[in-house]
Amino acid sequence: MGRLDDKVCVITGAARGQGAAEARLFAREGARVWLTDVLDEEGQGLADEIGASYQHLDVRDEDGWQSLAAAVEGAHGRLDVLLNNAGIFRRNRLVDTPLEEFQEVMDINCTGVFLGMRTFAPLLIKSGNGSIINVSSLAGMRAAAGALAYGASKWAVRGMTKAAAVELARKGVRVNSIHPGLIETPMAEQLGGDNDKLIKRTPLGRSAQADEVARMALFLASDESSYSSGSEFLIDGGLNAL
Description:
The protein is an alpha/beta fold.
């Protein structure tokens, strides 16, 4: 038996990187997975590979969320797990950040999470044992100098997670956030030479693999985390402990 047998799970930003790792693991553990992304060729290809469903979704698009919810409800009548994984990284200091860039980061990383939680809350409540997992970042726990917009968006995700956890607790829905440090994904490549500096500062002395984040998400999606809500789960090799 799998740890997610028959659970209906939606994963955003699932075409590659952490989202793809999470989708593969969830499918192996028995979940009925719905992948979403704007990278349709990669997303559909992965869905075909693991026996999942795929739907195009720009997480900033309220109508797109409604269309996805209608498809999931029509197919299953409920949702058990919402994994808000989609996000972008932009590297810029405060005085160099254009307003358009700040708004783009906030719209995808923050508003996208809000829309996902608001749209799917009724279906998660219907399941009687729903779990929302919001991917924040180590930048949502400490200063993100040099990536101000990104840090602001991830602190916002952390705050929304706590508020939603309190609001939805008595309705049977848990809400938690994951805070990865340096993970080997395409997004991490944007850090360039700073990767080596971060690895040297990290107590465990290495970056993490996407599968390591996926295993944390699996725990939070499963019934094994039934008494965890409103909490931050760090995957940072001990960096936040410094």
